[in-house]
Design brief:
By secondary structure, the protein is α+β, with helices and mostly antiparallel strands. 51% of the residues lie in helices and 17% in strands. The strands form four sheets. A seven-stranded mixed sheet has the order 10-22-21-20-11-18-19, sandwiched between helices. Helix 3 runs antiparallel to helix 4. The protein is elongated and about 115 Å long. The structure holds adenosine-5'-diphosphate and magnesium ion. Adenosine-5'-diphosphate (ADP) binds next to helix 12, strand 14, strand 15 and strand 16. Adenosine-5'-diphosphate binds next to helix 12, strand 14, strand 15 and strand 16.
């Protein structure tokens, strides 16, 4: 609880202690006789104790010409009730309203804290190693790229870097939602925000603090709340129109019926005097004001979204704003990239078919030509070659998206890529009867053979498609630059509804556009961020997978899945559906109860007690319901 909340709690308790005996006296339950002025004075003590800030805010609102807010509603209603001699009710309304405020403040504060606890990845310090080998504890902000830092067991990795000494297990759950520790040793990359579990690690930093993973993720999460969804925008507009409307309606309720009765004489029965008639209707109008206070809806909708974003990030799913949460909930079609998204993207060389020169040499040329590319194929070819590559032998490297690489090795033209690339440079190639991705190699304009590589499906790829179907996604389409045969096999193996093969990056955009015009719901594109940034931004919603550490993908995507697990796609959709469902429930429930109470009060069947209990009760239930968004079942 904050200081302010504690203060309010004390005021509520003090006021309640005063209020209860006074109320019993005023109802004639306690046999004490007091004159009216004394009762009024006594009731004003709890009233002002608990409500003085509301009165002040209402006054401020009037002075700043922003009249119609909740404080104004409460002030008019309670002052009205007290002026009409209903001391007990006036004070009770203020008291209960503040109980509601207190509850709401604590609940919101708690869920915020929960989220920042879940996202507890902000490093506090770094142990910088000086030239003399001494450790110095410094602000991570001050560490320059390329410095050596030491991470002790139990500490958070403060800055991204590469291990130069030591081995350990890292807990990355705050980043990825994956609870299994990850073993790391020399030359492995460590990301800030993960926790060192066992050994001492010496790390050479590869980024500044601001550019490190933890800072980027925190930025993203903190900015997410500012991208409002349509529902949230609707609610704030709604409140702006609704509150004044209610005030005028209350005014009309206080004036028109009694005027009507006085003029026409209809409805006089039951009223002894004109004063009694007016008193009755003004009181009804006050009740009406209390009931129509919109706080439950106004509070619970943003809170639900906020909790939804928090629950998702706890699972390693970063959603960049509540608007995306809303779009995600309407997804009916999901399009995928193949390499790195459905498959692991770590190819094994299964065969090398060569002609004039030997196999190892074909591989060597391929690895050399690929030395600068970050494409998964390139990484795999270099791994298969196994030896260190001398980059000085390579010049004029040209990477052609969807085709492959052209470069000069020792001054000789080398081309490494698919059939399209061979056609482009006019080299006759041999077809291969193996299934797998075929990488042709041409050296000095002559065909030198091809390397057959094959990729593995991700462990959860099949389940992921099944989970998507269960989550209501009717169409799953794979868009790949790879050959037809490979695409067909992968699509069959994982159970996709459709696939398109041999696409260049720009063809993928065209495909997504075609799918967009065909599909009824929203379309999501899932990619790994390597050469698919244009598609990520063209789809209704772009999901980058395994994006931890990939800047381009974090930039281009609307949703970032921090690990490689394709099951998270369905999970993200389920979280968004649940969240939107809760928002809808809250709106319908709150407005429904209000509508019933409003009608009752207009008919004179509800008093202020009922009104305030309904209001605070609805608010509490709506807030509790909203907080459910924070809790996501782990799969
Ligand atoms: P995907 O849609 O599967 O992610 P890409 O569009 O990245 O595929 O690449 C499509 C095809 O282009 C690959 O299957 C490969 O044949 C060829 N290719 C792309 N980049 C390279 C590279 N660096 N080296 C060799 N071939 C490449
Ligand atoms: Mg790709």
């Amino acid at each position: 609880m904050t200081k302010k909340q504690k203060n309010l709690l004390i005021r509520v308790i003090v006021a309640a202690v005063f209020f209860v005996p006074l109320y019993l006296i005023s109802e004639g339950i306690l046999p004490v006789e007091l004159p009216r002025w004394a009762m009024l004075a006594l009731f004003l003590i709890p009233y002002l104790t608990v409500g003085h800030d509301i009165l002040r805010k209402a006054a401020l609102g009037i002075r700043n010409r922003r009249v119609f807010d909740e404080c104004f509603l409460m002030t008019v209603a309670t002052v009205g009730a007290i002026a009409l001699g209903e001391y007990g009710e006036g004070v009770a309304v203020m008291l209960l309203y503040q109980v509601g405020e207190l509850f709401q403040g604590v609940a919101v504060g708690r869920s915020r804290r929960n989220i920042s606890e879940l996202m507890d990845i902000r490093p506090d310090y770094a142990n910088l190693e000086g030239e003399d080998g001494q450790l110095e504890r410094v602000d991570p902000d001050e560490v320059e790229t390329g410095s050596i830092i030491v991470v002790q067991p139990g500490e958070k990795v403060p800055i991204d870097g590469v291990i130069v000494e030591g081995a350990s297990a890292l807990n990355t759950s705050a980043l990825t939602g994956e609870s299994k520790p990850m073993d790391v040793s020399v030359d492995n990359t460590v990301l800030s925000g993960s926790i060192n579990l066992s050994g001492v690690l010496k790390v050479r930093t590869t980024a500044e603090f601001d550019e490190s993973t933890a800072s980027k993720i925190l930025d993203l999460v903190e900015n997410a709340a500012s991208r409002k969804s349509k529902s949230e925008n609707f609610i704030s507009k709604f409140a702006r129109v609704y509150t004044p409307f209610v005030c005028y309606a209350a005014l009309a309720l206080a004036i028109l019926p009694p005027l009507f009765t006085m003029i026409t004489g209809v409805g006089w029965a039951g009223y002894a005097t004109t004063g009694a008639l007016w008193r009755e209707w003004v009181l009804r109008a006050c009740t009406f004001l209390v009931i129509s206070c919109p706080c439950a809806v106004v509070i619970s909708v943003p809170l639900s979204f906020f909790a939804g974003l928090g629950g998702a990030s706890n699972q390693g799913i970063l959603i960049k704003g509540s608007n995306y949460l809303e779009t995600l909930s309407q997804v009916k079609t999901v399009a995928f990239d193949k390499t790195g998204t459905i498959t692991k993207g770590s190819f094994e060389v299964t065969a090398v078919h060569h002609n004039p020169i030997d196999a190892q040499q074909v591989l060597a040329y391929a690895a050399l030509a690929e030395c600068h590319s970050s494409h998964p194929i390139s990484l795999s070819l270099r791994r298969a070659y196994g030896k260190a590559v001398d980059v000085n032998r390579v010049t004029d490297v040209q990477e052609i998206s969807g085709h492959g690489i052209q470069a000069k090795v020792d001054g000789v033209d080398v081309a490494v890529g698919n059939e399209k690339l061979m056609n482009r440079i006019g080299v006759a190639f041999m077809h291969c009867h193996h299934t797998g991705t075929i990488i042709h190699v041409a050296i000095g304009g002559e065909y030198a053979g091809h390397i057959v590589i094959s990729d593995e499906l991700k462990a959860n790829a099949r389940e992921a498609m099944e989970a998507l179907r269960r989550a209501g996604v009717s169409r799953t389409v794979m868009l790949t630059g790879d050959a037809e045969a490979v695409a067909k096999q992968v699509a069959g193996d994982v159970g996709l509804t459709d696939y398109r093969a041999e696409l260049l990056p720009q063809d993928k955009v065209a495909c997504v556009e075609a799918l967009l015009s065909e599909s009824k719901g929203k379309l999501a594109f899932v990619g790994d961020g390597i050469n698919d940034a244009p598609v990520l931004s063209r789809a209704d919603i772009g999901i980058a997978m395994g994006a931890l550490g990939s800047d381009a993908a974090i930039e281009a995507a609307d949703v970032v899945l921090m690990d490689d697990d394709p099951l998270k796609i369905a999970k993200a959709i389920r979280i968004s559906r649940k969240c939107l469902g809760i928002v809808k429930q809250n709106i319908i429930f709150a407005l429904g109860v209000k509508a019933v109470c409003l009608v009752l009060s207009a008919l004179g069947l509800a008093n202020m007690w009922l009104a305030i209990v309904a209001d605070v009760g609805v608010m509490i239930l709506a807030v509790l319901n909203a907080i459910r968004c924070l809790f996501v079942k782990r799969l």
